[in-house]
Every structure is written in C-alpha cells, then in structure tokens.
Amino acid sequence: MSSSSTSSTERVAFRAQVLSRHLHPSPSSSSSPCLLEPRACLEYPPSTKAMDTKAMRKRKHRFRHESDGHESIAFDTKAMRKLMDDHNLEDRDWLYGLIIQSNLFNPRDRGGKVFVGPDYNQSKEQQRVMTMKRIEYLAECGVFKGYLTYSSPPSQLRRFALQEVADSFDHSLSIKIGVHFFLWGGALQFFGTKRHHDKWLSDTENYRVKGCFAMTELGHGSNVRGIETITTYDSDTGEFIVNTPCESAQKYWIGGAANHATHTVVFSQLKINGTNQGVHAFIVPIRDADGNVCPNIRIADCGHKIGLNGVDNGRIWFDNVRIPRENLLNSVADVSADGQYLSAIKDPDQRFAAFMAPLTSGRVILASSATYSAKIGLSIAIRYALTRRAFSLTSNGPEVLLLDYPTHQRRLLPLLAKTYAMSFAANHLKKLYVKRTPESIKTIHVVSSAFKPTLTWHNMRTLQECREAVGGQGLKTENRVGHLKSEYDVQSTFEGDNNVLMQQVSKALLGEYVSAKKKNRPFNGLGLEHMNKPCPLIPSQLTSSILRSIQFQMNIFQLRERDLLNRFAAEVAQHQAQGVSREITFTLTYSLAEDLGKAFADLSIMQIFIEAEEAVPAGHLKNVLGLVRSLYAIILLEEDAAFLRYGYLSTDNAAAVRKEVAKLCVELRPHALALVSSFGIPDAFLSPLAFNWIEANAWPSVEN
Amino acid sequence: MYKSVSNLVLEETCGSVRIYTLNRTKQLNALSFAMISRLLELFHACDHDPSVKLIIMKGNGRAFCAGGDVAAVVRDISKGDWKLGANYFRKEFTLNYLMATYSKPQVSFLNGIVMGGGAGASIHGRFRIATENSVFAMPETALGLFPDVGASYYLSRLRGFFGEYVGLTGARLDGAEMLACGLATHFVPLHIIDKCFSRKTVEEIISVLESKAVEHKDEWITSTVQTLKKASPTSLKISLRSIREGRLEGVGECLVREYRMVCCVMKGEVSRDFFEGCRALLLDKDKNPNWQPSRLECVTDEMVDRHFSKVDDIDWEDLKLPPRSNLPVHAIAKL
User: Fold this and answer.
1) A186, A519, A586, A691: which has the fewest C-beta neighbours closer than 10 Å?
2) B68 included as an active-site residue
3) Which chain A residue has its CA at the smallest distance from B201's CA?
4) 0.90 exceeded by the pTM?
5) InterPro entries given for it (chain B) (predicted)?
C-alpha cells in the first residue's frame, strides 16, 4: 500500500520534472550574439488569461530593461474580443455554456481539461443521430426561439451569433440547423406568403416540421436555371404534379433528406399550358409523422463523405407527386385555380433574380463561419507553437520555441492578421445584410459574392498551414486542425461555387463601369468612388513608414482595382468589337476577371479594417490593431503576383515589402497569445494540443 | 472586547502539518478583515516553507465559517468610504486566489455551516471533507450581493446547470449532497434544474419554473420560485451573468471580474440593494428588504453592464493578483 503510493508520488514528481525541464529550460549562460534568441513568452501552462497578460507584461517590461529593445504592448483582450465577435457576446457565452454543460456534446477529460466535440469515430448513422439529439436539446433550451418569427435586425444578428457558436462545436451541427432554418425556413419566409407562414413557420421553429431544401440536382448545381425537375398543373383536381423526368434530374446533396426531414421545398421548372415559366419553388411533404417516406417519393443516401457526416444528405426522386395548388410558394408568381399563370414580374430573368436574392443569407453565414474555423485553427497552432520547442541553436543550449523561429512566425502570423481582417469583413457583411433595403440588395449580392469565396478560401489555406505547423499532432482528429479541413472543404462549393461567384463580382464591376461611362456620370457605389479621383502615385522608394501608412495601403489597393477594371473593360470591349458575344467574351477574359475580383475583395476588406480601427480610441489596442492591419496589407502585396505583373510595385519595392513582412512578424510575435485569446473561443472548443499536451498524452490519461 | 487575532485563528504545528482553526464561534467564524489578513500571511509563509507539507483548516463550534463579515463591511462603508469595503474584498479574493493556486494540499473539515466567504476559504483548496453536519450555501442574492469569492469559477463548473441553481437561489446543500456534487441529489429532480436554469435570462428561468409548477405541483419548485422572487432582482441578474462568464474563464479572471462587481456594489451608485439587504437581514432583521429596482424587467442591461466594467474612480484599479508559478491547468471546481 505505502510502496505503491510512494511509487505513484515518484512518478508524479518525475513527470513534473520532465515537464518543467522541457518547458522552462535553464537560460543558457553564454550570451552569444544569436539571431534566434529565445524571446520572452508565456510560461506554460497558458492557464488563466488574465494572469497571462499581466505576467507577460511584467516579463516584457523586465526584458526591455535587460536586453532586447523590442517595444511590446499588452492590450485588453476582452475589449479586443468585443471587436472580433462584435455582437451578442452574452448570447454566445450562453450557448457555449449550454454545450459545455451537457453530456450530449461528448465532453472528454484530457490532461485535466475538458474538451467538447463530436466523436468522429462513430459511424455516419450514429453521428446523424447525435446531431439530431443535440438540435433537439438546443431547441428545448430555447436557442431557436424567434428564429423564424422575429425578424428585427437584432434578432437576425442573434441568429448569426448562435450559428457561429454551433459551428465552433461542429460544422455538421450548424449546417443541419442552417438547412432547416435558413434554407427551408428562409424559403417559406421569403418565397411564401401568409398562408405558408401561418401553416409552417411556427411548426418549423419548434421542429414539429423538419425541413430540407431540394435545389441542386445531379446534373445541375450553380446553374439553377438549368434544373430538369418539371412541375405541371392539373386544373381538374387543383393540384401540381412534381416529376423527376430523368436520372440527372434527381435531387442531390439534400441535407436532412436521407433520415430526418418531413418536408422539402422543391425547385422545379413550372410548365403551364405547354409554356415553361421557369424555376419555381413548391412545398412537398416527403415523410409522415412516423418517419415513413411518402408515396411516389424515392429517397437514397448520398453515402459517407469526407466531412459533415453528421448531416444526412440524401437524393430524392419525385414520381408524379401530387400536391395542393396552395403549396406553390407564391410571393413572386402564382397559378390560379383554373390554371392561369400570374406574375407581377413579366421578365423571367428578373423573376428569377427576385427569387434568388433572399438566399444571400447562406453566403453571409458561410463567410463568417469560415473565419471562426480559421480562428480555431490558429488558436491551436499558435498556442502549441508557444509551448513546443524544437532544436537548440547552440550546443547544450535550450531548444527554441517554435514561434521564436522567424519561419514559423512567417507561416502563422500573416494568417492571423488576415483572420483579423476577415473577421471585420464578416461583421460588416452581416450588418449590411440585416439592414438591407431594396437599394442595397445589389451591393449585398456583390459584396457577399466576393467575401464568401475570399473568406472560405482563406480558412482552408489557414487550416492547411496550421496542420503542418503543429506537425504530426495535427493528424489526430481530436486535435481539430487537421480534421477541420475535411469538414470545411465543402464551403468553397456550396451556396455558390467560389469561382462562379468571383466572376459575378467582376461582371458587376464591369456593369458599373460601362453604365458610368455611357451616362458620363461619376462612379457611385460598390466602393468605386475612388475612380473619380486622380490616379494615385506609388513612391519609387518604399520605406517602412510609408509601407505602414494607411494612405499608401489604400492607394496601392485602389490603384490595382482601378487599373484592372480599366484593363478588363478594354479587353471585353475589344472582343465585342470583333463581334464576339457577351457570353463568349466572359469565358475568354477569365484571367483579368479573376485578378479584378480579388482586387475588389481585398480593397473592400482593407477599407472595413481601417474603419474598424479608426473607431477604436487611441491606446495599446489601437496600436496593435495598426500592426495587424499593416501586416494584412503588406502580406497581400507580397503574395499577389498582380502587383508585380501589372507593375504597381517595382522589383525593388517588392523586396522592401518582403523585408517589412518579416519585421512586422517580429513585432507581432509578443502579442500572438493575446491576439488568439481575443478570438474568445472557449478552451473547451479548442483541443488538448492548445494546452498541456504532455499531461494529455501522459500514461495516466491512457489508463483513464 | 475583541479577541486578539491570534485567538481568532488558532495555529498548531504537528510535524510537517499546519492546522489553522477559525475561532470566532459567536459569529459562526465569520471572517473579519483581521482574520483574512492573518490567513493570508500564514498561507504566504507556508508557501515558501519547505518544512510544511500540508495545511488543515477547521472551524470551532457549529460552523466551519458562515461567510465574510459583511455586517462589519457595511458598518465601515456607512462611515463614508466604500473603498474600505473594496479593500476587504481585495484581501479576501487574494486569499481565495492563493488557495486556488496553492502548491501544497489544503484539507478543510467542513463540519458545520459553510457559506459565502467560508466556501471561498475551503472550496478552492484541494481536499474538502464534508460531514453529516455540513450545510453549504451561497446565499448572497438574498443580501443584494452576488456569489463572490470565486464562486463564478467553481459554481459554473458543477455538472449541468446546478451552479446557476445554487448561486441564484442560495439553496442549502447537506454533506451528502455536497459529496455528490456533480450532484445526483435525491431531493431535486436534476433534469428540472437543467431545463430551467439553462435558460438565457433570469426572467426566462422563473417563467419556466412557474410553468413547471403548474405541471408538477412540486413543493421544491414553488419554494424555488419564491426564493428567487425574494432575492434582489439586480443581484439575480449580475449573479447569472457572473456564473455564465465564469464558466469560460480561469479562476484568476473570475476573481478579477468579481472584484469589479463587488466594488460596483460597494460604491452603491448603480444599486443600493446590498445595504438594504444587510439592513433587512442582518441589522434590523425585519426580513423585508425594499429592493430598488423591485422588478427584474426594470434592471436594465446598462445597469448590469456597469457591474462588469472598470470602476470609474481615479484611485481605483483592477484586482492585482500575485504571480503564481503553480497555476494548475485543471484548476477545476472541486466542490
């Protein structure tokens, strides 16, 4: 008895010793001048944040006195979190708490800390059951209260905030909720009229009805107008007849269809008296209350996927399914009892546009969801880089913290700066969306079409870098960074293929350009007003202070957009002058279109960042934000070949840019922990790798 | 008239063990400023003394410790300076923090009443021994205060939404219940606690409890609703938010935030419920506090926010906790 307790004490003492040797190596006595000097940084474990910042400040202070002359600024991470999350902080914390406190969210103890997250080792069937159970629990707690019945801007923002929190737990959870509320519920709200609202909205809100959204087909995705499902009207019975005429018309990837949905909104061509009136939406019940598939409907599973296995994606075939005439969602067009087609909008193009406009909310959500995923990846990778050491630079010297290597800083910190920029962008887009007016619809369409691709691509790139930056540990599912890649990969495809959306951006910009030139009026809208001013000049010698000035950063982004838009317009005009059709012209001018779309997105985000920064009172926080903004601007100058390709930067300037990137990384390095802490993601939503990964991997954890 | 400090905290040495006994039996060992200062000194000394391996805390009489000496705090403040009150809490929270991050095991014998500050002086330590005489409660909302001494840290880490329940209602737990706390208690249907106390706002919590009361006709539910309605509306709102925020914070952050809150309460500019609560329950003992505002819906978000903001006063600063090298990663609540 006593011997076993002694040995366990010894084991604990031994482990503590190993741990402390690893984490607090004795400072090397030789003060050899060395580029890679281990810098002051948090002590392991990064436990309580309040203490970290204080302890850090103290240590920094001492450091400044003793050796390095680096300026460092501690700032209030709570205030920064407010900027990052922007709205509904209390609602977010409430939902984080609901998740952490319930066994349904698979809490696991790793090294004395509890982490939540689905068990991805379960079969897809089990994962789907769990997703549904979690949703039912959240519904019971009142999370979805008012999701469809309140529509004020604050309640829409609340929905966005809660969606982001659910997303931080598991992408499947948020997607399954999103399909039900934003796609099915949104279709009812926006395409339906009072009779649909009365019948279905409140039942949807409390999950008596489970909805899905059948738009995509095997043969048609982004090109919704090409779908092949056909609906006709039978005036004898007053019913619509929905039919899947061929295999490529089967509905595909319909989230919720495989197991749980009771209803779907079907997108279909509407043929009245032999005339095709274009795409319309209908409500079709697909399962009865007991979960049996309705007659004349066939449903198959989409099978195992690379991610999102907690969502039951299915395929649907309609075999001349009859539904009442009232099931046409008739906000834009209707069919009378005797079979006459009625619509206030005569032009089918406009009708289609009116139809699709409300679906923008999906893109808005995806854009912000992507930034939260990037935040999780970076929080984990940077916290790990602040506790993991590798290689010593002197014989018998201590091993160096990963984040003290300039290479590691260069890999992670620019992505951190971009994630800050994109968070501001996502917040801006959400507000633009909830305050929408008929006049702002176009702007929202263009901005969301630019931001959704930019932010989702950024997330995928960030996750890949984070996965590599944490090394082999990134391969473990429970460490999240690697696994998130497969969960979020789909974001570049759904709610509008990223490349297709980016082309729409440059088309819209061209439209503005052509109409301004034709009417000979100044640019007004889509942020193009800078084109009315004289062309900005870029200094031939870029110093550090020029590179960091807001003026220069705006100038060079505006120069790029202005020049690319001019070039794009000229190229299009040239093709058309040769008699090439508009459609074919756009397929030929893709290179400039792509550069222009990027230029628009980067400039818009830059502008939003600057506005956010300007609203912050002078002080430490603002100073750090300034560094982050500069790194964001300058890394783009370094990465996008367009600046060199079109000569906005000389090769000398490009070299100055590259130097500045390295300098900014060094300056941001001491703030890395504070910057990721400001993301406000609770510890339980990160992973063991972000904390005491030795304890989490120690033998007693295996035994438990 | 006063016992000397050394009599209020009895000190014994037994090999490498130090035994500290709270000895203010008439006041149920309520912690005076002097006692807290002494404990702080003792804990600091033992921290650096390699001969000390273990600290035992006990209480003489029928209480381990009934809490902080709030009556004295109110008396001090009524002499004109709220900062005397703030000073008391700064010391107390620092002691709580020291215990939570202590390098050596602290064993507390909870043989009797453990409330408020008494919980703060024991729960943060590594071992707590409950007995059949233990009575635990965080009764602050009835006093116009909120569960402090790091309660937003340890209550928020109880299973489900038990922490919200215990913190808002001041419910009393016996020894067995304390022991079971991840707490499968027999006297309360736990799923009802979770259903009600998981709600976003105090108003919603009460309204769900009331609708359950109609369904179940359960005495526990009705008495819970009554307790909540008797408590200070401002206290309830700040307590709920404190526990919710605490759930996502470390123990140090919890104490720093609670210090902001307690200073706001002491200053008495947003609400004077604490003074009214102490008057009604501790001084006049009419048990009939006149809360201002008297209704939950009159407590605005702005009023709640101010409890969580820095105190607007030139000399005031956030609680500065001593740097500790021994922060346990798993500084989990240990109730």
Assistant:
1) A519
2) yes
3) A94
4) no
5) ClpP/crotonase-like_dom_sf, ECH_dom, HIBYL-CoA-H
Q: Within 13 A of A228's CA, how many CA atoms are on the CB side?
A: 14
CB proximity B310 to A under 8 Å:
no
pLDDT digits (tens, 9 = 90+) for B174-216: 877 777 764 333 345 567 888 899 999 999 999 999 998 888 7
Could you tell me the pLDDT band of residue A437, with boundaries at 50, 70 and 90? confident
Tokens of residue B79, six digits = 């002499």
- Torsion, Cα A629 A630 A634 A636, to 10 degrees, reads 0
For the ranges A197-211, B138-152, B312-326, which has the lowest average pLDDT? Answer: B312-326
Instruction: Give dist(CA A635, CA A458) in Å, integer.
Output: 13
The amino acid present at A365, given as its one-letter code, is I
Pairwise CA distance, residues A465 & A484, whole Å:
12
Task: Give the one of A50, A113, A682 whose C-beta lies nearest to B253's C-beta.
Answer: A50
- Of the candidates A55, A94, A695, the beta carbon closest to that of B329 is on A695
- Active-site annotation holds for B148: yes
DSSP secondary structure letter of residue A531: G
**Residue A121 CB neighbour total at 10 angstroms:** 9
B241 → chain A, closest CA residue: A90
Q: Shortest Cα distance from B121 to chain A (angstroms)?
A: 20
Picking from A48, A88, A92, A109 by the largest number of B CB atoms within 10 A of its own CB, the best residue to mutate is A48
Q: What is the pLDDT of residue B6?
A: 66
Q: What percent of chain B has pLDDT over 70?
A: 92
Instruction: Please state the domain extents for chain B.
Output: 2-318
Query: Measured between alpha carbons, how far apart are the two ends of chain A, in Å?
Result: 21
Amino acid, single-letter form, for residue B228: L
As separate numbers, helices (DSSP H) first and strands (DSSP E) second, chain A gives 26, 15
Helix A77-85 / helix A89-100 crossing angle, nearest 10 deg: 100
Residue A259's pLDDT is what? 97
Question: Would the CB atoms of A48 and B320 count as touching at under 8 Å?
Answer: no
The answer, for B57 touching chain A at a CB cutoff of 8 Å, is no
pLDDT value at residue B5:
58
A482-523 pLDDT, tens digit per residue, is: 999 999 999 999 999 999 999 999 999 999 999 999 999 999
Task: State the residue for tokens 């399914």.
Answer: A321
Distance CA B176, CA B178 (A): 5
User: Smallest Cβ distance to B248: which of A96, A111, A142?
Assistant: A96
